């Protein structure tokens, strides 16, 4: 009896060894690329492309031009992600350097899309920005755990689309009554990510990609020293989308400006970097100084004082209570991601920039800004727009009060949760409010707020009504 049992055990061990040699991993996943391509997650990715990406491509074919070009790059990025997903099922989890090298093909395609938005502003700038920014959602594949500095894959896809939706909404508003092909393209692009990519990640990779513990090793690019006499290499390119520095939250970055000053004061070592001034260096003892101010020196002082009117750009948290965003020009990727309901945000002197506030804050003030876009989720007290020109503000959550004062040109985008907001205007013109349609998936509905009023003395008091213009 025992002899038969031993024979059966030996036979079972022999079968397991044969399976191991034939290429079946410990997880039961085949090592063959052909068989991996038939994995349910890969098949589902093909279905995602057929159902959603085909609609974006079809609409782009009707538009042509740069919209078609950026759409081809978008489809190329999704194709690269599919190849990476197949590789992940055959590869061991790499270290951070190996991961950056592994994801390099995807990063190159994303940077190629972003390059289309640079230089001279195109007539289809909103299309290019919407497509380019949306590709950030594909970086969910770089998630390696809660300590990697990224949001969970599902949340990352949703947050990335919120960045692109700012420009996507502009397309819907601009072409709503002009060209339905552009409207179809914008709607199809949104559905590619929400619900398309989000639901795919939720079904197959909610905790990030699953690497093959018994697969091949991902190799990182070795560093080679230049040969003697070789020319000095050019400076490194802009930071990769998957670099560790870009994934750090704003709270973990080195403090700048006044925040750094207060941090230095708190250390108690304030005078460590000061130099002692000797007697011969004091102004009263210097022979090269007279009481006469030359014309050239006066011109230099006047020019420097005029330059100082526009201070250096700032994006910092001061005293732990107030986020300050100042003098940002041409920055489309400003983000405040580590905030709470006790903090306020003050935006001053910014031009041609976009700021995202990813969290609930107490108050938002936008002061003396031109062509500035601000996207925020929730505000406890109010969002104030003062002394601005041509600004766009989008509320994705709730806002009890929105005030617009001394502003020329303001577009307000309200979510369904913020339709009950109280909007106050004073000394302002060209104020338009866009609200979501009553039916799901409908176009935004635009309402212009009155800026002219009629006052009539009636029954012992003045009655004020907005001016209405008839088409007759």
TrEMBL record:
<dbReference type="InterPro" id="IPR053950">
    <property type="entry name" value="CAP_N"/>
</dbReference>
<dbReference type="Pfam" id="PF08603">
    <property type="entry name" value="CAP_C"/>
</dbReference>
<dbReference type="InterPro" id="IPR016098">
    <property type="entry name" value="CAP/MinC_C"/>
</dbReference>
<feature type="domain" description="C-CAP/cofactor C-like">
    <location>
        <begin position="312"/>
        <end position="449"/>
    </location>
</feature>
<dbReference type="InterPro" id="IPR006599">
    <property type="entry name" value="CARP_motif"/>
</dbReference>
<dbReference type="GO" id="GO:0008179">
    <property type="term" value="F:adenylate cyclase binding"/>
</dbReference>
<dbReference type="InterPro" id="IPR013992">
    <property type="entry name" value="Adenylate_cyclase-assoc_CAP_N"/>
</dbReference>
<dbReference type="InterPro" id="IPR036222">
    <property type="entry name" value="CAP_N_sf"/>
</dbReference>
<dbReference type="GO" id="GO:0003779">
    <property type="term" value="F:actin binding"/>
</dbReference>
<feature type="compositionally biased region" description="Low complexity">
    <location>
        <begin position="240"/>
        <end position="252"/>
    </location>
</feature>
<dbReference type="InterPro" id="IPR013912">
    <property type="entry name" value="Adenylate_cyclase-assoc_CAP_C"/>
</dbReference>
<dbReference type="InterPro" id="IPR017901">
    <property type="entry name" value="C-CAP_CF_C-like"/>
</dbReference>
<feature type="compositionally biased region" description="Basic and acidic residues">
    <location>
        <begin position="279"/>
        <end position="289"/>
    </location>
</feature>
<dbReference type="InterPro" id="IPR001837">
    <property type="entry name" value="Adenylate_cyclase-assoc_CAP"/>
</dbReference>
<dbReference type="Pfam" id="PF21938">
    <property type="entry name" value="CAP_N"/>
</dbReference>
<feature type="compositionally biased region" description="Pro residues">
    <location>
        <begin position="224"/>
        <end position="239"/>
    </location>
</feature>
<dbReference type="InterPro" id="IPR018106">
    <property type="entry name" value="CAP_CS_N"/>
</dbReference>
<comment type="similarity">
    <text>Belongs to the CAP family.</text>
</comment>
<protein>
    <recommendedName>
        <fullName>Adenylyl cyclase-associated protein</fullName>
    </recommendedName>
</protein>
<dbReference type="GO" id="GO:0007015">
    <property type="term" value="P:actin filament organization"/>
</dbReference>
<dbReference type="InterPro" id="IPR036223">
    <property type="entry name" value="CAP_C_sf"/>
</dbReference>
<dbReference type="GO" id="GO:0019933">
    <property type="term" value="P:cAMP-mediated signaling"/>
</dbReference>
<feature type="region of interest" description="Disordered">
    <location>
        <begin position="216"/>
        <end position="256"/>
    </location>
</feature>
<dbReference type="Pfam" id="PF01213">
    <property type="entry name" value="CAP_N-CM"/>
</dbReference>
<feature type="region of interest" description="Disordered">
    <location>
        <begin position="279"/>
        <end position="312"/>
    </location>
</feature>
<dbReference type="GO" id="GO:0005737">
    <property type="term" value="C:cytoplasm"/>
</dbReference>
């Amino acid at each position: 009896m025992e002899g038969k049992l031993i024979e059966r055990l030996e036979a079972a061990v022999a079968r397991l060894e044969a399976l191991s040699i034939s290429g079946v991993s410990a997880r039961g996943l085949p090592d063959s690329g052909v068989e991996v391509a038939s994995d349910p997650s890969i098949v589902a990715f093909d279905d995602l492309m057929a159902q959603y990406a085909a609609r974006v491509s079809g609409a782009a074919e009707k538009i042509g031009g740069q919209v078609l070009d950026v759409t081809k790059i978008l489809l190329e990025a999704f194709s690269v992600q599919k190849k990476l997903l197949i590789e992940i099922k055959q590869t061991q989890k790499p270290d951070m350097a190996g991961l950056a090298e592994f994801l390099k093909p995807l990063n190159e395609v994303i940077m190629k899309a972003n390059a289309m938005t640079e230089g001279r502003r195109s007539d289809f700038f909103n299309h290019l920005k919407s497509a380019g920014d949306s590709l950030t959602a594909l970086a969910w594949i770089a998630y390696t755990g809660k300590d990697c500095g990224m949001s969970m894959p599902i949340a990352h896809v949703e947050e990335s689309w919120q960045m692109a939706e700012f420009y996507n909404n502009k397309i819907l508003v601009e072409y709503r009554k002009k060209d339905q092909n552009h409207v179809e393209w914008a709607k199809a692009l949104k559905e590619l990510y929400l619900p398309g990519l989000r639901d795919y990640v939720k079904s197959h990779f909610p905790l990030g990609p699953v690497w093959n513990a018994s697969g091949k090793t991902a190799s990182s690019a070795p560093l080679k020293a230049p040969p003697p006499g070789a020319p000095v290499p050019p400076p490194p390119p802009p930071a990769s989308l998957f670099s560790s520095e870009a994934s750090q939250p704003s709270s973990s970055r080195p403090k700048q400006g006044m925040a750094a000053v207060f941090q230095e004061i708190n250390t108690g070592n304030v005078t460590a970097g000061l130099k002692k001034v000797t007697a011969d260096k004091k102004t009263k003892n210097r022979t090269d100084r007279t009481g006469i101010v030359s014309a050239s020196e006066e011109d230099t002082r006047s020019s420097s004082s005029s330059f100082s009117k526009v201070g250096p750009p700032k994006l910092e948290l001061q005293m732990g209570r107030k986020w300050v965003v100042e003098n940002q020009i041409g920055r489309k990727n400003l983000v405040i991601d580590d905030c709470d309901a006790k903090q306020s945000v003050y935006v001053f002197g910014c031009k041609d920039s976009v700021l995202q506030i990813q969290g609930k804050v107490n108050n938002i003030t936008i002061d003396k800004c031109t062509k500035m876009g601000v996207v925020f989720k929730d505000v406890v007290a109010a969002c104030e727009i003062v002394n601005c020109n041509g600004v766009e503000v989008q509320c994705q959550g709730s806002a009890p009060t929105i005030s617009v004062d001394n502003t020329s040109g303001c577009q307000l985008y309200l979510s369904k949760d913020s339709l009950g907001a109280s909007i106050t205007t004073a000394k302002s013109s060209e104020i338009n409010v866009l609200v979501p349609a009553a039916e799901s998936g409908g176009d935004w509905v635009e309402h212009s707020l009155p800026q002219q009023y009629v006052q009539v003395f009636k029954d012992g008091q003045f009655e004020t009504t907005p001016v209405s213009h008839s088409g007759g």
